[in-house]
Amino acid sequence: MNVIFVDSVLGTELLQMVSHDVAGILAAAQGESVTFPLGHFKYEFHNLDFYEQDGEIRQELVIYVKKI
């Protein structure tokens, strides 16, 4: 599944990845902080989005984080 980290204040995409361990990624993101090259961020909330691509329904997890 696609997993996307987004800065909840600026709306900037920080990272896009594909993972089969979505529950693990989400649990880790909800910890103390997430570190990206742009700094340290704290989990805010997440959405599970569904969209159509090439006639197929796909899903992606969007994790919103705020810089600390």
Automatic annotation (TrEMBL):
Source domain of life is Bacteria
Species annotation: Lysinibacillus xylanilyticus
Q: What is this protein called?
A: Thymidylate synthase
